Structure formats: structure tokens, C-alpha cells
Amino acid sequence: MSESTVLKFGGTSVADAAALQRVAGVVQRAHRSARPVVIVSALAGVTDALLAAADAAAHGDVERMQPQLAALLERHAEIAGRLASPDGNRGIQAVLGRARPELADLLRRVAGEPERRPALRDEIAAYGERLSAALLTAVLLAADVPARYVDARHCLITDAAPGRATPLLPDTEQRTRAELAPLLEHRLVPVLGGFIGATLEGVTTTLGRGGSDYSAALVGAALAAAEIQIWTDVSGVLTADPRVVPSAGTIPSLSYAEAAELAYFGAKVLHPKTIQPAMERDIPVRICNSHAPGDPGTMVTARGDVRAGAVKAIAHKSGITVLQINSTRMLGAYGFLRGLFEVFERHQTVVDVVTTSEVSVSLTVEDAGSLPDIVAELRPLGTVSVESGRAIVCVVGEGLRTTPGIAARVFATISDINVSLISQGASRVNLTFVVDEGRVQEAVLRLHEALFEREPADLDAAAATGAP
Ligand code: ADP
Ligand code: ASP
Ligand code: MG
């Protein structure tokens, strides 16, 4: 079998009929020269609406979100009416006709079976991707692309953790190949919903919010694809979050390490887990704009290229809590750090950034759900202080470590903003630090201006004088 290419389209790429028509054009062109496999997210806003309906039902209000649910099903119906063939349209109306009572039943069960709520939430959320994949299949068929709907739950096999399932890789690879290879051999174009999977027993699961990118990477890795393309609403990975820095520009190429750090520290354009499967199989990941398919976008490969001046991008993530643990016992003692991290492990809480001194450890967590228990269990180890409302800023670039003066430039630029928890060197590609959430946008804007929008001579002068 010749190599396939995975094309993933995010929610805004399939928001309405015009967007779906653009997607059909992209897939049509890909089908001429490659063997595309299509992964699609729920239509924009649909996952939020489905989860809001599940939450309302959990609070005993099964009816409150009914008008929104009816409207979102109607959006699919309307698009099918405009873009599908008469047969395809009938097929979609039948799918929607079944979804209506199924969703109503699931919502009633959410209200009535509290112990099953997390699993039912996944079942409800999965309708977003199941419906968008069925709809896109019909739209592609009407555009003469030989598309075939594939239930992603037959391919992505996961553990049973509700809302954030982990894929079981050997099963996922084997099932994905078994489902998709026969279609690809007949030059058919498989269309799968992203984000969703199932346990070995067939219980529906989801990979976490934004998880369709991860689905694309898993399918790409299983098929040893030639390329994984992430089609979104911006022209690639940009030098900063465009919602904070309107002048942010496209980064032509990134290494896997750079892309992974950016995704992890807040660049929403890629789900943090996307890079790992691609990197393991050395598959290039391209990020493209479905609203401007001619734009070059960003290419992520093993090498990337080292940008002169070393900084490629700035990512940031708000909603961070900093914990500081002070212990006199740590001085010269071993086993202290192990005991400390075991607390986080017990509560399945991920620690992002860590710094240590002789007698204290500072670290950041994003998921503060178990914080009261964590703090109680840390107390026997020393005094614990908790600061919420913090943000991580992450300056990324291959070669950061070997380029002199970057840290000086960064901190001179924001010298009036209080910086804590600085970490450089754990990874060769980033400089990470924490600021107050209320000042993070200003910090990112100023850093972007200093590192990307000024002449190098200005930068040297700023670093020398300490002026921002
Ligand atoms: P999709 O629905 O296609 O998955 P997302 O909304 O998940 O799209 O991700 C794309 C969005 O990510 C962009 O519209 C942009 O606002 C945001 N974003 C944040 N940081 C970056 C960055 N560094 N580069 C590009 N986009 C970014
Ligand atoms: N539809 C899911 C979400 O909104 C997955 C995705 O879009 O990647 O989180
Ligand atoms: Mg996304």
C-alpha cells in the first residue's frame, strides 16, 4: 500500500456550509496526488453545547438545553440540505432522526444515574464528532470524493478514564490498520471523527478537550503516514497567541521539541499530545489554514531549523497555581523529593515547572482539583504556601541554550513585572517562568515586540542598558 496522508480539520474549519465546502476542495485536491485519511472535529461550538446539556441534566434540568440541542442538530440538517446529494441528505436526516431520541435518553440517564455520569458525558460528547464525520462524508461524496464514514471508536482503543482516556497503542495501531488499509487500497477516503475512542469492551471514551489533533497523530502513526496535516483557522503556528499579539506571524518550520513545548505551554493550535506519536515515527506534521489553503503554514519535523537570534515563539498559559514547600529537613537529606512527588502522583496531578533551592521546592500545577488534599499531605514535609492566579510564559527556540544574552533580553524587557520560578536548561529549547496572571498579556506583548519586531541592534542596546 502506498503511503497515506492524514488531514485533520478542526471545529472552525467545519463551522458552516461555506467552511465545509472549502474542506471538500482541500480533500479533493489531496485525493488527486495522495491517499488522504480525514479526521474531523465536531462543528464549532457543538462539543461545548453537548457538555453544557450534560451538566444541566446532572443538575436535574434535562430540558434547559433542549432548544440549543435542537438548534445544533438543525445546523447539521441545514448543511446537508445545501451540500449533500438527495441520497446523502436523506442519510443524514436519518442519522439526525436517531440522534435526537438517543441524546434525550442519555440526558435523562445523566439525571437519574449519578454514578454513571462521567461515562455518559463521554457518550454525549461523542455525538459531536460522530455527526460531523457523517456530515462531512456526505458532503465529500457530493463533491465526487469517494469518502467512507468510519466509526473512530473501532480504531482508537483506550483505557476507561472518562474525559481524558489514554490510548492503548498496540490495539489502536492494529485496529486502525485493519479498518483503514482495505479502504485505502481501493482508493477510498476514510472519514473519522476525532476526539473519540472506545475501550476494548466498546464503551465510548474521549481523549480530552482539543483531542482531535491527537487522534490525527495516532492514526498517522498507525498507518506510518507520509504526513499529518492539521487544518485550522490560522496560518500555522504563530510567534505568539494571535488573540494576545495581533501582529504574530507564521513560523515556517519547527522541530518536534519546539512544537511540543509550545503546545504544552499554551499554544492551543496543537493539542499537547499531538507531537509524540508523530515524533516516534518521524512523520512530518504540517499546520495549515483551511480558510486560506494557499498559505504556506508551518512544517514540524525532527530537525526544524535554528532561527538566527534563537527565539521562535512565545507561549503562555494562565490559571496556574504555584506551590512552595520549605523544609529544613531537605538540607542534606535524601528521599525528600521522592516523598514530595509521590503526593502529586497519588492525586494524579501533573506538575509542569519545578525549581529547587537548598531547602525549598517551588512548582506549578494547572489542575487545582485536588489541591486541598495535596497541601494537607505536603504539610508533614514542611511549610507550604499556595499562590493561585499565576501564568506560565515559555520562550521557545532550538539553540536558546547556546545563544548568549537571551535571558538578559527577556528579563530586561519585563523588568517591572514580578517574575518567579525561572527554569531554563531542563529542555534545550525553552526558557520558562511564572508571572502574575493579570500581567501576562502585557508581558507577552512586550516580549513579542522586543524579540520579533525590533531590529537586532535595538535588542542589543536594550539588553545592555536594561531598558524595555
Ligand atoms: P481547531 O478548532 O482547528 O482545533 P483551535 O481553536 O483548537 O482550532 O486552535 C487554533 C487557535 O489556537 C487559533 O485560532 C489561535 O487563536 C490559538 N492559538 C494560540 N496560540 C497560538 C499560536 N502560537 N499559533 C497559532 N494559534 C494559536
Ligand atoms: N470537539 C472536541 C473539543 O471541542 C475535540 C476537538 O475539537 O479537537 O474539544
Ligand atoms: Mg483544537
List the SSEs and their pairings.
Blueprint: E1 4-9, H1 17-33, E2 35-40, H2 46-58, H3 66-83, H4 86-112, H5 117-142, E3 147-150, H6 169-185, E4 189-193, E5 196-198, E6 204-206, H7 212-222, E7 227-232, E8 253-255, H8 256-264, H9 275-280, E9 285-289, E10 298-301, E11 313-326, H10 336-346, E12 351-356, E13 360-365, H11 371-378, E14 383-396, H12 406-413, E15 420-424, E16 430-436, H13 440-453, H14 456-465
Parallel strand pairs: 1-2, 1-7, 2-4, 3-4, 7-9, 8-10
Antiparallel strand pairs: 5-6, 9-10, 11-13, 11-14, 12-13, 14-16, 15-16
Helix pairs in contact: 2-3, 2-4, 2-5, 3-4, 3-5, 4-5, 6-7, 12-14
The structure holds adenosine-5'-diphosphate (ADP), aspartic acid and magnesium ion.
Residues 10, 210, 213 line the site of magnesium ion.
Can you put this structure into words, describing what you see?
The protein has 468 residues and is of the alpha/beta class. The protein has two domains: 4-233, 3-Layer(aba) Sandwich (Carbamate kinase); 313-465, VC0802-like (2-Layer Sandwich), CATH 3.30.2130.10. It is 42% helix and 21% strand. The protein has 14 helices and 16 strands. The strands form three sheets. Strands 3-4-2-1-7-9-10-8 form an eight-stranded mixed beta sheet, with helices on both faces. The protein has a six-stranded antiparallel beta sheet with strand order 12-13-11-14-16-15. A two-stranded antiparallel ribbon has the order 5-6. Helix 3 (66-83) packs antiparallel against helix 4 and helix 4 runs antiparallel to helix 5. It is globular, with a radius of gyration of 24 Å. The relative contact order is 0.10. The mean pLDDT is 93. Aspartic acid (ASP) binds next to loops.
